[in-house]
Design a protein that fits this description.
single chain, mainly alpha, Tetracycline Repressor, domain 2, 9 helices, elongated
C-alpha cells in the first residue's frame, strides 16, 4: 500500500482493512505505521544486499564490480520507484527519528558494502591512503583493513586535496 499510495496517504485502518484484520490486531505487532514501513524497508534493503552480493560475486576487478553493482541498484530503483522512495526518502521526523538517521540505521549494511568497494577501487587504481581516510571519516566508517595506522585526530587534520597530490 505504501508503494501504491505513498506513506502519508496510508492509515493503519486502511492497512487493517486491506489484510482483513482490525487495526487493534496491527497495534499488537506494530506501534504505528512508521514501524510497519521500517520493517518493509529493512526487507527491501535485505533484497538490495542480496542483489549486490550476487552481482559483486560475478566480477573480479573492483572497478567492474562497482559499475555492475551500481547499475543493479539503479535498475532496482527504476523498476520499483515507490519502494525506492519509501526506503531512501522515508518519513521525516517520525517518532523523534530524523529521516537521515532512519536510512542510516536500516541502510548501513548496504552502504558499508559500497564504501568497501570504493576503497577496493581506490586501492586498485593506486590512490593514496590518506584520501581513503578522508572518505572513511566522512562516511563515519572504520577504514579498510589495508590502511596501516588509523588515527581520528589525524583524520581531523586532513584537508581535502586532489587524489594525486
Amino acid at each position: 500500500m505504501f508503494a501504491d499510495r505513498g506513506y502519508e496517504a496510508v492509515t493503519l485502518r486502511a492497512i487493517a482493512k486491506e489484510i482483513g484484520y482490525t487495526h487493534a490486531v496491527i497495534y499488537q505487532h506494530f506501534r504505528d505505521k512508521w514501524h510497519i514501513l521500517a520493517e518493509l524497508s529493512s526487507e527491501t534493503i535485505g533484497l538490495l544486499i542480496q542483489s549486490f552480493d550476487a552481482i559483486a560475486a560475478k566480477y573480479r576487478v573492483p572497478k567492474e564490480r562497482l559499475f555492475a553493482t551500481s547499475r543493479g541498484l539503479i535498475q532496482f530503483c527504476t523498476a520499483h520507484p515507490q519502494q525506492f522512495r519509501n526506503v531512501f526518502f522515508g518519513p521525516e521526523n517520525r517518532n523523534g527519528i530524523r529521516a537521515g538517521q532512519y536510512i542510516n540505521d536500516i541502510g548501513t549494511p548496504l552502504f558499508q558494502r559500497f564504501v568497501q568497494l570504493f576503497f577496493d577501487v581506490a586501492k586498485d587504481e593506486g590512490f593514496p591512503c590518506r584520501d581513503d581516510r578522508v572518505v572513511a571519516h566522512t562516511c563515519g566508517l572504520p577504514p579498510p583493513s589495508y590502511l596501516p595506522f588509523w588515527s581520528a585526530t589525524e583524520t581531523h587534520s586532513l584537508r581535502r586535496s586532489s587524489p594525486r597530490s
